[in-house]
Design a protein that fits this description.
Layout lengths: L1 H5 L4 E11 L2 E12 L17 E2 L2 E7 L17 E3 L2 E2 L3 H12 L12 E2 L2 E5 L8 E5 L1 H4 L9 E3 L3 E3 L6 E3 L4 E16 L7 E12 L15 E5 L12 E2 L14 E6 L3 E17 L2 E13 L19 E4 L3 E9 L6 E6 H8 L1 E3 L5 H6 L15 H13 L2 H23 L1 H9 L2 H13 L8 E2 L2 E2 H15 L2 H14 L9 H11 L3
Parallel strand pairs: 2-4, 5-15, 16-21
Antiparallel strand pairs: 1-2, 3-4, 6-7, 8-9, 8-23, 9-14, 10-13, 11-12, 13-14, 17-18, 17-20, 18-19, 19-22, 20-21, 21-22, 24-25
Helix pairs in contact: 6-7, 7-8, 8-10, 10-11
Length: about 500
């Protein structure tokens, strides 16, 4: 039983003991299955799901009992990058991993240097569509002699080939270092004020977008104006940028602030001092000026009274209105409830970037300041937009033939997906339900973008696998139709993100 369960990539290990219910031990035996994270059932393919019973015993799915690891977020966000996720240059890790693989007898020891992506931003003065950056700390991305142009990854944990140890992936590269940044005072003047020094520890990453100048679709790394699990007013997006001043440290009514880091998740705190001077940081004399000092006022996601720990560096600090006010840079060496952050405006001034917010909605929606307008207005109703798409397809012969192909074989395909086990497995394993939901939403909302990759699976992979399996189990008429229509469709989804763009590309590919 254990050997069967351990094959699951999300399973760390399997024990056998008492089943737990609501955190309490029972007297019932169970396979205790330890996982990296508990996922909703609908996000799991059939082969990823843990059976409720095995060999006559119940199974019990449990997070690994390490209180720090249990709240770390080591998921690779391959759908789109957002604030609050783990990042690293992985230079030391990759070098020592390769050494270990080439010399199996050499111990694989490394110093894992991870930090947090704070939020997404645009590059000031860059009017291209590929002007997307990310904000973090200098000390997060600079280790091991990194430089401008060095790759930055959003890693995740997985088992090695032997299934004996957990290692990190580095297949999800999100971009390259744009400005390596610095750790020192930076002179900055707020409007109508004289310039004064503000200590900053900041850097920027150029996100690897690839937004077409013709069809306004991103074929590279997707992004979103969102901070994971922020959940203020039940929303995760950033609304704007604000300044922390002396009034925010009023002892009678201090300003509440929040952060989301990869290490300890979401934290809540209050402003203790808006202009704190730091003589040293990590034992290094810096004589830092005008730093934000924050004290935790509630438990973080790790159920500890801490605002930030090592690994949370690079998180943005936001107020209750979801406005960015600072950038977490350090924890206190003596008091775990205390953390420190840079003021956001001096950081922006030095890096020459501007966070993406709802104040700049066009940036967050299209990935650039000067996006191509959609043909159909977003204010038009769902039926009008869908009808427009159908008219565009019917406007050329190959488009009309594609519509006929879909309508003629819809029922047979649906029956195969729902009732033929091999077809069902391919459909779910390659994220068919999720992609279908995106396509349906895109048919109603002209602004909705269809991702080119979900959980590591490209849309073209789904189409190719489904074409092959439907040809294997479908009727001769369906086989002939797939052979005729499918090949030209396979690679188009990797180049587009909206149905209008798909139609444009399909028309060009079929010389319509």
């Amino acid at each position: 039983g254990r050997a069967q369960l351990i094959k699951n990539d999300n399973v760390i290990d399997v024990g056998f003991g008492a089943k737990e219910v609501a955190g309490e031990l029972t007297t019932e035996w169970a396979f205790r299955v330890y996982v990296h994270e508990k996922k909703p059932l609908e996000e799991l393919s059939p082969e990823e799901r843990i059976p409720e019973r095995l060999l006559g015993y119940k199974t019990d799915i449990l997070l690994l009992g390490d209180p720090v690891r249990a709240c770390e977020d080591m998921k690779a966000y391959t759908d789109y990058v957002r604030g609050g996720i783990a990042i690293s240059n992985l230079i030391d890790y990759r070098r020592k991993l390769n050494q270990s693989r080439n010399n199996p007898g050499v111990p694989f020891n490394f110093d894992l240097k991870l930090g947090t992506l704070g939020c997404l931003a645009t590059i000031d003065g860059d009017t291209s569509k590929n002007n997307i950056a990310a904000l973090t700390n200098y000390h997060v991305i600079a280790p091991d002699n990194a430089k401008a142009g060095s790759s930055i990854f959003n890693p995740r944990r997985k088992k090695n080939a032997a299934g004996t140890a957990v290692e990190l992936t580095y297949d999800h590269k999100i971009g390259k270092i744009l400005k390596l940044g610095k750790e020192e005072n930076h002179n900055y003047a707020y409007p109508s004020e004289q310039a004064k020094p503000y200590y900053i520890d900041c850097a920027s990453i150029k996100i690897s977008t690839c937004i077409s100048s013709k069809c306004d679709c991103n074929c590279g790394t997707n992004f979103k104006n969102e901070i994971r699990i922020l959940n203020l007013d039940q929303k995760n997006n950033v609304t704007g940028i604000a300044r922390i001043n002396i009034a925010d440290a009023n002892p009678a009514a201090p300003t509440a602030v929040y952060k989301v880091g990869y290490r300890t998740g979401k934290s809540v705190g209050k402003i203790v001092d808006a202009f704190y001077p730091a003589r040293t940081i990590d034992g290094v004399v810096v004589n830092g000026k005008n730093i934000i000092k924050i004290k935790a006022t509630g438990l973080n996601s790790c159920k500890k009274m801490e605002f930030a720990k090592s690994g949370d560096s690079g998180s943005v600090v936001v107020n209750a209105q979801r406005q960015v006010v600072g950038l977490v840079m350090a924890e206190d060496g003596q008091d775990p409830t205390i953390a420190y952050a840079c003021h956001i405006h001096p950081v922006m001034d030095f890096l020459k970037i501007t966070p993406i917010t709802t104040d700049n909605a066009a940036q967050a929606q299209s990935g650039s300041r000067n996006s191509t307008a959609t043909i159909i207005s977003a204010t038009e109703n769902d039926n009008t937009y869908l009808e427009s798409l159908q008219e565009q397809l019917h406007s050329f012969p190959a488009g009309s033939a594609l519509m006929e192909f879909v309508e003629e074989h819809r029922l047979e395909v649906s029956k195969l997906v729902n009732e033929n086990r091999p077809v069902t497995l391919i459909w779910h394993r390659h994220k068919g339900p999720t992609y279908l939901a995106h396509f349906l939403r895109s048919s109603r909302d002209p602004k909705h973008k269809i991702p080119t990759k979900i959980a590591g699976i490209y849309c073209s992979d789904l189409l190719k696998k489904m074409g092959a399996i439907l040809s294997e189990y479908g009727s001769p008429v369906l086989q002939q139709a797939i052979a005729k229509h499918a090949p030209v469709l396979y690679d188009i989804p990797n180049r587009v993100c909206r149905l209008e763009d798909f139609i444009f590309q399909y028309k060009a590919a079929t010389h319509g």
